[in-house]
Amino acid sequence: MAVGKSIIRKEAWDKVTGRAKYTNDFKEQGMLHAVLVTSPYAHARILSLDARRALAAPGVHAVVTGEGLPLTGEDMRDRPPIAVDKVRYYGEVVAVVVADTLAQAEQAARLVRVVYEPLPAVGSPSEALKEGAPLLHEHLDRYEKNKTTHPEPGTNVAHRTKIRKGNIEQGFAESDVIVETSVSFAPSDHIAMETRCATAEIWPDGTIHISASSQSPFMIKKLLHTYFGEETGKIIVHTPLVGGAYGGKAPVQLELLAYLASKAVGGRKVSVWNSREHDMITSPVHIGLEATVKIGATKEGLFKAMEILFLFDGGAYSDKAIDVSRAAAVDCTGPYHVENVFCDSLCVYTNRPYATPFRSFGHCEQAFAVERAIDELARTLQLDPWEVRRKNAILPGHTTPTQVRLTKSNVGNMPACLDRLRELMRWDEWQRVELDAYTVRAKGISGGWKTSTIDTDASSGVILTFNSDGSVNVISGVVEIGTGTKTVLAQIVAERLKMDVDDVHVKMDIDTQTTPEHWKTVASRGTFMAGRAALAAADDAIRQLKDIAACVLRASPDDLEVGFGRVFLRDDPAIFLPIKDIAYGYKFPNGNAIGGQVIGRGHYILRHLTPLDPETGAGKPGPEWGVCAEGVEIEFNRRDYTYRIVKAYAVIDAGKVLNPKAALGQAMGAMSMGLSFASREGFLFDKEQRVLNPQLRTYRPIRFGEHPEYIVEFVETPQIDAPYGARGIGEHGLIGMPAALANALSLAAGVPLNELPLVPELIWRKQKGDSYGSV
Amino acid sequence: MEETTKRELVLHVNGERRSIVARQAETLLFVLRDGLGLTGAKPGCLNGDCGACTVLVDGTPIKSCMMLAIETVGKEITTIEGLDDAPIQHAFVRHFSFQCGYCTPGFIMNAHALIERHPNADEAAIQEWLESNICRCTSYQEIEAAVKEVLEAKKAAPTDP
Ligand code: FES
Ligand code: FES
């Protein structure tokens, strides 16, 4: 039926004809435009701000500044929506100019005079932790925070997650060898092709209408209430199609500015739309990291202990960076069984753009650190790196770093992924070959796993309404950010109702007033949570259809079946009612009627999740662990240090593939993003921590023709409580790519490459540095 | 400030004559989107780097953020809204060559022009044309498959326009 088929996404034709509409495509006569005035310093005191000339400029209605605004932040409220007194990163918003046209707002923005007194800027987590480092937040102790956030006042530590499992000393004592590896990379960016955009309008009745390019429309509602005391019921958020998100549109930022701007102009509609430059540095970015991994193992390569220190570069404000640092800790070992684990994961403040989720939520970062260390361990022991991974692969019965016992359902089949990867890559044939004097080919691999560290009470709802022709509308709060989840929901509903998926329509746009809530469209949980809700809604609809049909057919509902557009008697399908005749209730020949429109309702809430113990990390952060094994084959030129990515492989345990082509697309797209990040992306900072490359010309993601050949396969180990067994797959493709690329290049170049991005210059520097003893 | 610099422009867009009053400094992209309501062409960088704004001007793919509207007077502009059931649109749908769809109009216009202009395009030519657009969702392999399929089909049936 519908599940397991490559159903074309429901909005496909809108997208290839230019009819698909995104937030910034909705224009209205009389809508005002806002432009952000941002800081040219990474750390500075604001001595004065003079907006008089800007206010006098043509078309200008208001200049909004930061005085008197509440602090914001999801875990800890440390961020003023508009900076006051002090700026903490290059590109931070200091004022918002509202004018009739965008051009007028842009011109007036240049007239806002701000006098700064520069302060010393903190450039990396390790610098931020040094004795005497400048403090970003002097009043860390005064910030409001939730129970699971543990800042360390008097330092630049926004949060520390501790994982303590087993006995680390004993683990190292039992080890024959101990290797230690350090890795690092600077913050980078999501670069969704659609830059973030939000509009706000406040109606005379007090209702607040927000339109936003967001993964979290329901969170916007909640946060406007928390921060500004607005009544939740009066906040209506509209989210049309979103032009790429990858985690970057989960945080709430521009929406607050649009709201403040609208308030400043008597509730008129105001649009705030990021320029590419602002989108890259003013809005939150992909986190940076410095990490040290120490692995203790036996001669045979069996892991005995892992000690891990993650110093995440959370940037100037903690936002969701706290959560990212926690997620990496939760899965710190990767998909391997380790009895003794000691991990400290710190979210550290620096004077850099603030960080937020990036596809894989801390896991490609975790994997880069640990998988580099595993390769170093294999090299030290002269073992095959694949063997080492296979030997330690996580299995049902093992426990995770946060001490969750794994079952056949809640963890994927890691050995199967590794075994298939080995075959696909022809791993045993060669791992490094010299084609000629200068050209080397090499392969590198990585394991990966992920659970979703999400709110323990995250929930999702689905409503199904029937049309008089018997077709169904699916209404869900999942935002269509490109993952095709809404189409997969239609498949799930069609499968359950045994109907043609063409007769299942989906409502793409979100309107928080009429769409049931879906916590956030993040963490690859759309299919699982909304899928469960959709199944519940379908069952609810089936019950209603049977009830009406039971009256008409004078049969017990228990004897009825729903499917193929009919409700029929199980033992005699020739006795039936077409669904279209009862979808709006049934009218008897004499005019009497029963029933009414069939409206199926369903919801799902995650179960048995618990916060982590602050001392040991013990707790259940997410519902299941999806696993994958990935590899990269490169061709390296030893003369000029350039390389070509020839092939990229992924074997992912999908649980069940609901839509093969869509699943492949998710995996390959994630792999591409991972390779792009690892090979060429990253912000360049000057000594004052100003970003030097906030443009797509100087920050250059992978382009057409630079892509390798992608080879993706799925293993199917069902997650029993998920719709048809499907696991989240939207992020796994990314997890192993940076590590696999670094492992391949390290092998090719013969020098450990533990920094990203892996540009030729870095490889050259590492080689020279090693042979000359200094860099 | 701008009032003095506005003027009336007559543009030929998708086979229609459209007249509009716009600032002389306005780019083609903004006039198409804000003035004519043709929002298919997307702003992605306004700097010529991403290709999301690609439209055809006299059949040549142009980044409409880099061209003033006034420069296109007397020329034929085709936007994604003006494509009618082009083979490349079908191929994009079949090959799942997009996800969020934001880069899609630009990619399709560029690919469409490539196919029209160079039906015999080889690997190098395909790359040269398509590397001017960024897609952040797909792996490009899906886009490559769509473009190559249309080129192949064209070669197989050369008389079919
Ligand atoms: S918007 Fe024109 S190239 Fe990016
Ligand atoms: S489909 Fe999203 S950027 Fe290409």
Any descriptors?
heterodimer, A: 775 residues, alpha+beta, Aldehyde Oxidoreductase, domain 4, eight-stranded mixed β-sheet, six-stranded mixed β-sheet, globular, B: alpha+beta, Ubiquitin-like (UB roll), DNA polymerase, domain 1, 5 strands, binds FE2/S2 (inorganic) cluster
Chart the SSEs and their pairings.
The complex is a heterodimer of chains A (775) and B (161).
Chain A lengths: L11 H5 L15 E7 L5 E7 L1 H5 L3 E5 L21 E2 L5 E7 L2 H8 L3 E6 L6 H5 L27 E9 L2 H6 L3 E9 L11 E6 L5 E5 L4 H12 L6 E5 L14 H11 L5 E4 L2 H6 L3 E2 L1 E10 L5 E13 L5 H10 L9 E10 L5 E2 L6 H19 L3 H8 L21 H11 L7 E3 L4 E12 L8 E8 L5 E5 L8 H12 L7 E3 L3 E2 L14 H28 L6 E4 L2 E4 L2 E7 H4 L1 E4 L5 E5 L1 E7 L20 E12 L5 E11 L6 H21 L28 E7 L16 H4 L1 H13 L5 E2 L3 H13 L3
Parallel strand pairs in A: 1-12, 8-33, 10-11, 13-17, 15-16, 21-22, 31-32
Antiparallel strand pairs in A: 1-5, 2-4, 2-6, 3-5, 7-16, 8-14, 9-10, 9-12, 11-23, 14-15, 18-19, 19-30, 20-21, 20-29, 24-25, 25-26, 27-28, 30-31
Helix pairs in contact in A: 10-18, 13-14, 16-18
Chain B lengths: L5 E8 L2 E8 L4 H8 L18 E4 L2 E4 L12 E3 L8 H8 L9 H14 L5 H8 L10 H16 L5
Parallel strand pairs in B: 1-5
Antiparallel strand pairs in B: 1-2, 3-4, 3-5
The structure holds FE2/S2 (inorganic) cluster (2 copies).
The site of one FE2/S2 (inorganic) cluster (FES) has 12 residues of chain B, from loops.
Percent of sequence in beta strands of chain A: 25-35%
Which oligomeric form is depicted? heterodimer
Q: Alpha-carbon distance between the termini of chain A?
A: 61 Å
- Helical fraction of chain A equals 25-40%
**Category from helices, strands and their pairing of chain B:** alpha+beta
Fourth CATH level, the homologous superfamily of the largest domain in chain B: Beta-grasp domain
Count of alpha/pi helices of chain A: 19
Identify the CATH architecture of the domain at 285-454 and 610-772 in chain A: 2-Layer Sandwich
Provide the low-confidence segments of chain B as ranges: none
Task: Report the principal-axis shape of chain A.
Answer: globular
Helical segment tally of chain B? 5
What is the alpha-carbon Rg of chain A in Å? 27 Å
Q: What portion of residues of chain B is helical?
A: 25-40%
* Biggest beta-sheet profile of chain B: 5 strands, mixed
User: In whole angstroms, how far apart are the ends of chain B?
Assistant: 49 Å
Number of strands of chain A: 33
Number of separate strands of chain B? 5
| Number of individual domains of chain B | 2
**What name is given to the CATH topology of the largest domain in chain B?**
Ubiquitin-like (UB roll)
